[in-house]
Amino acid sequence: MREEEVRYQKLRFAAWIGIVANLGLAAMKAIVGMIANSKALIADAVHSASDVVSSVVVLIGVRAAKMPPDEDHPYGHGKAESVASIIVAVLLFIVGFEIAVSAFQSFFEPVEVPRTLAIYAVLISIFVKEGLFRYKHYLGKKFKSDALVTDAWHHRSDVLSSFAALLGIGAAILGGYLHIQWLVYGDAVASAVVAVLIGKMAWDLGNQAIHNTLDHVLHDEDTVEMREAAKSVDGVMNLDAFHAREHGHYVIIDIKIAVNPRMTVEDGHTIAKAVKERLMLEPNVHDVFVHVNPYNGKDS
């Protein structure tokens, strides 16, 4: 099985794991939240439900990125995953805003002390979501998938929100037991904290995804081996220009080589072909475009 196909299968499986797990968690937290009178847990359930949508977006993005180059997209569809990351970040921000509005309204409504059952639901959520984060983050980094890494951090945001909900629910239960009124609002405060955490994470992930979507070249220190590999090809007298740009999970290289000005066009083409073949052996290099210049005696 080709490396690209293996990558797609692994990322697709991870996305489906997220969809199934989040559906179960969202249903559990929503039901327990209503039974236990916990606004923080219901807010957390909405967050888990949004993770289902984000996993579906990731699944679509990974599938699109796998498509081969065509007439309209000669460089491939690698940026589809970065676009999916932006969509996930926007969804995350919307969820955070809705939770913030709900938390604010809670301060002006009668407060019911949540039941202890809510704590068990939150603990289960923390355990499952942390497992999903570690699994997806590992795969995302391994296969250079912006979409899966963003989705992984979406799971980590759910861990943070569940932890905040745990503290809020615990404070509210304690406040009801000790008859301390301000502690009873701990559940609503936890919802507000959850909203802030989600908003911050959405901003950070969206900012990174937009950066990855825009064309940017790798730094010189990241391309030392590539440039040395190109120079090592027989007939290459100098590198006039070298740009390696990330295109989603893979790299496309634009290079200008200098050769003996007295050689034939065919010989220059042969050297250019050798340079491309050598660079295509480098990790994550998807395509190489080589331009041949006559050597003018000046080294870069």
UniProtKB/TrEMBL annotation:
Cellular compartments per GO CC: membrane
SUPFAM superfamilies in UniProt: Cation efflux protein cytoplasmic domain-like, Cation efflux protein transmembrane domain-like
Topology with respect to the bilayer: Multi-pass membrane protein
Domain spans labelled Cation efflux protein transmembrane: 16-206
Transmembrane parts of this sequence: 12-35, 41-62, 83-105, 117-135, 159-178
Sorted UniProt keywords: Membrane, Transmembrane, Transmembrane helix, Transport
Signal peptide start and end residues: none
Main location: membrane
Matching Pfam families: Cation_efflux, ZT_dimer
Listed GO MF terms: monoatomic cation transmembrane transporter activity
Domain annotation Cation efflux protein cytoplasmic: ranges: 219-295
Sequence similarity: Belongs to the cation diffusion facilitator (CDF) transporter (TC 2.A.4) family.
The protein's name: Cation efflux system (Zinc/cadmium)
